[in-house]
Structures
1.
Amino acid sequence: MSLNRQKGNMYEWVTHTWNPIGGRCPHQCAYCYMLGLPVGELRLRPKFLRDDNLSGKTIFVGSSTDMWAEDVPDEWIERVLYCCNQFPESTFLFQSKNPLRFVHFLGFGFPPKTVLGTTIESNRDYDISEAPTIWHRVNPMIAIEGHRKMVSIEPVLDFDPEQLVEYIKRIGPEFVSIGADSKGHRLPEPSAEKVRSLIDELDVFTEVKLKSNLARLGIDLDEFEKQAVDFDSVA
Ligand code: SF4
């Protein structure tokens, strides 16, 4: 079955993940949970596009590879979007480290309940990935209008508070999800104090969702009285 019920540590507000484009992600982030798995070459899975059970769900499309990476042919993305558009009542999350590609596809048309997201682990560029630089993620996200937007700061890496908050403010996301590296990749991580103050600053202008893996950095979720928020309730 191509549609997977969401399990594990991804997003509690997503009900399913769906990967009609699969295989080796060109971005090769050092912390990616897919790294080293025998996923094969990047490819479209036409069989997935015949799914008729995408209705009434909140689906993260492309959770196992960045289907918006430059190496992915336009035609594959068009076919996926065409399929998603057959289910206008479902919420689709598209998340990419190459959101410039979202901009190129605005004219093609996303489903009405689309959420467009990007990951910015920090305002700083660390040498941990082949993905576009942080600014090349932030800038297209700022330009996008007319769609719900989200930002993932996961795994959160050490950052400059003023600039990171400014970037996120300019993107104008409906919510920000913050999480930590789950697998001990020896990344440059911020102090708990810094993360606490980031949460407080973001809370002023957007919804902040915290992931339980922040506990490893010393962040107690109860401290912020945050709970899993139903996705539709933040619309
Ligand atoms: S962009 Fe996402 S899927 Fe691709 S390597 Fe990085 S973490 Fe993995």
2.
Amino acid sequence: MALDSIQGSLRERGVRLTRQRQILLELIDNTGEHLDAERLYQMAKEKDPKLNRVTVYRTLKMLKAGGLVDELDLMHYGGDQHYYETRLKQEHAHVICLRCGRVEEFFGEPLQRLRRQIESHFGFQVLLARTEVGGYCAHCQTLRALEVDQLRNGAAAPAHAARGAPSGPGAGGNSGKPHGLRSRGA
Ligand SMILES: [Zn+2]
Ligand SMILES: [Zn+2]
């Protein structure tokens, strides 16, 4: 995507594309990924060591308010973390693996159809749509199946119980009180 058109739309709004803003916009646009503010700050700092965290956060806010980047929470996979992507991409849904955090983008006619159906059904004018789908990627499904297997087999091998994780349904009724804590004053 040409940075010229971004510059144009910013100029219309009376916003100057400073070097720092430009660095961030380019990073977001070029990676094509969904990076959080901290990661963007680290990457931006490599390009301009004078950039500080406050400026980066403020600039992200500005780019968001200017409609140039979209702020996503990606099903809160990373807690309160927010992720940024360019608004210039074609509308797409985010498919998020809740185990490993992998994010896929789904572009497709069904999204446009959904938009049209909502518009005609509610007489609604859709300005933006954000679609997020959470689940497990193919890789994590395999790993989860293995984990379930291990849990089943692990029930016979008590060595795992020392790790502190509950070792199965109903296991360890009053294991919630680690006795190590109580011996402090003794
Ligand atoms: Zn996964
Ligand atoms: Zn995306």
3.
Amino acid sequence: MSPRSDPPNPLLTPWTGNFELPPLAAIKPDHFRPAFDHALAEHRSEIDAISTNSAAPNFENTIAALEKSGRELERVSSVFFVLAGAHTSDDIEAIERDISPLLARHSNALYLNRALYARIATLYLERATLGLDAEQARVLERYHTRFVRAGAALEKPAQERLAGINERLASLGTQFAQNVLADEKSFVMVLEETDLAGLPDFARAAARAAAEERGHAGKYAITLARSSVESLLQFSSRRDLREKAFQAWIRRGENGGATDNRKLIAEMVMLRAERAKLLGFATFADYRLDDQMAKTPAAARKLLDEVWGRARTKAGVERDALQTMVAEEGGNFALAPHDWRYYTEKLRKAKFDLDEAEIKPYFQLEKMVEAAFETAHRLFGLSFKKVDVPLYHPDARAWEVTDAQGRHVALFIGDYFARSSKHSGAWMTTLRDQAKLSGDVRPIVLNVCNFSKPAQGEPALLSFDDARTLFHEFGHALHGMLSNVTYPLLAGTAVPSDFVELPSQLYEHWLEVPEILREYARHCRTGKPMPKALLDRLLATRTFNQGFATVEYTACALVDLDLHSLPDAAHLDAADFERKDLERIAMPAEIVMRHRLPHFQHLFSGGGYAAGYYSYMWSEVLDADAFAAFEETGNAFDPATAKRLHEYVYGAGNLRDPAEAYKSFRGRLPTVDALLKKRGLADVVAS
Ligand SMILES: [Zn+2]
């Protein structure tokens, strides 16, 4: 018998299967650490070769060479982080804790490499005489900005301190996310049949499935997944249960013990402030916004302030109506945050004769996926065909995407159901980004959501909000799939975060286009389209409860900006800061921030939105104004407008400065009017 050798590591062997998809079913946690070590070493030697090249720097031997380097690390990382988000385990979490400081150290070594920076700086100075085309000039400019913003031009001691800060921040960010997930996993409210008063069938079915998944077969479970806890808050007539679940939900990351995030926040905010100072900025918010479309915290704040006062007024009117309803029912209590959704649902039913339980059978997951595809077909000529390829979980599904000429565009993966191995929220991510530098590389794009999984044999039903989330994430997915650039640095969603929500939020508008709803909102039992009267009533509720939604969001954006505008954050008490800041902006007592600081993952797990949560509203100014461009033509699918949208937004990655890209699409910069109208705030006086 011949000696058996270890099978090769599937992360390090070429991916030759369909669509060159990584062999997801064959990859085991044990494969990651050796693959990371190998890929990191390879990238290091590529960087060394570029930075120590004895030839004078030119675009090809420096910028293009950087763009071609690190491809293996890119491959290993993208597989790893897809799993760490969507299907994690104790093993994956342990590797993530080990690897995040190593990746931070690696990125430091790249961006603080003085010899490499000297080459980039030389090219940047000479940029006008290098004969570059527009895209090459943009890549060079982006590299220069990135290196400067990372501290490449600083003296050695400052660089060393920065490197230490970055590594520490990476570890803290990983820990933060894992703590939130741990708090979510440890809470489950197991209910008996008799506890379900008020819950409609779909919520009962979801609770039954959740109980089954958590080992309580035959009972009902409420978890802290948004769709689970929100349906309890919306429908349960048991005030005690609503309070219990709501308290657990808003206390994630703030429960004392090993998973408490408050100290982590204090340290992260302090380190970010210190990093900003080292780089010559007064505060982290100044540093962060300098490279965004908004440019300054003052510009972001101006927009938020414009909305905040009006939103408070509208929320006050909404609260009074809910309180009246409590009194009419004979309730002798002041409306509390855990009552808001319940009475809002009742009011909606009373006012519009509309309840979620009546709407939900019309929003089947399968049909909404088709609706998102059909919209992409009408706007951009895309077609979607289901394909059978091995993925990382049986709930994930894949489609091949082709264009009007039948050419391959992308592989799209949808992973829609909540499970305990998945982080909360909804997101788009990629297993491969588009680029044309080394062959025509087409992207593999994922949407990961947390919709309630139905019991066996039942159809998966969405709330209208869930359907909107599906369209939102699919808009991000299109931004990745339609990308048409040469250089990887500029591909798809690699744009400033106050611009990146434009393609996603804009896409939500097409869910509400009557011709899409008429065709795809079909009853799960009868297959009949939603009756026109119901559709009209549904669309009439668009601005209903928008005071609440705007307050819940805008408070988060304001607290985020204030927190990251602290010039010195030593001795920060995160909970105390949050309380005082909410007092300062006169937060209505009946509404809680959409994400409280101890579980505010946008800010603290990775930090992608730190001092950047305003981005959603900034982008909403853009999306409301952009959709108006279609409305002005009288056709929600106007071909000429769609063509410009494809060219300057969805297909353009980071080819242009965002303001310039928007102007190329719209012919002018946006105004805030369409946003105020969309939220029903146009005629509201600020309080
Ligand atoms: Zn988004």
4.
Amino acid sequence: MNKYKVISFYKYIEIQNPEGLANEQLNWCLKNGILGKVYLAKEGISGSVFGNDEAISKYKNHLRSFKIFEDIWFKETPTNQIAFKKMHVRVKDEIVNSGLKETKLENTAPKLTPEQLLRFYETGKDFVIVDARNWYESKIGKFKNAITPQITHFREWPKVVDSLEEYKNKTIVTYCTGGIRCEKASAYMLEQGFKDVYQVDGGIINYIQQFPDTYWEGGMFVFDDRKVIEPNTKEELKYIANCHFCNKPTSYFINCHNLDCDKIIVCCHECKAENEYCCSDECRLSSNKRKVFYE
Ligand SMILES: [Zn+2]
Ligand SMILES: [Zn+2]
């Protein structure tokens, strides 16, 4: 039995007073055993929060009690791990930093359900699937045949779209972790003249819950202390990345503990310990190392 749940959610909706709501959220969560991150902006809410079953179900009811959030979709993942140790609530300009200020949400692409995406694959449909996440996310997991842009921040999306010019008249499917980035990513593509764009509804989280061991390959990067979710049980679909040191298949990452380096590398647990969480001997001998050892 899993003891805890992580829920992630977002909704684009006009919020009059994000600061007020931020205070409310922080106080409520601290009182009710909820940890995680919630972002608020005038354009909406996004979050990923963690707690035991009871706390999570209370939180869902609480958030849905606000008229503007009564239909919000919570994507749930049961877990035994501690996903967050703190509660952060922040007011931002955008609920996901995109830099796509001119992009209109009403232009967002139609949603493709996990079943529909599965059918695209199974019927051999001619389509181009594009990962809207960062390189270190797609490095350890992606949809079969996906284009995986080597970007380090979603703000670089326009550059990715430029590079896809040759597919302008093809069927395009975009995906991200929970769907939030694709709302704007797909809108931007349509605005740039792409003809037939879809986004995976509810993102990877939604797909792997329904169809593990199919067309998702490897692990899914998450922005909390779990770091990675491994949805597949078929040996050949478990890992797509290899340890930087020993080449063993793994989905784990470290940030090099030399703060002057901070490079992200794929690294198995054994090599992580052996190399003191560093990417090289040089970094291991640095005097400017992180004091805390993360799992
Ligand atoms: Zn290794
Ligand atoms: Zn290093």
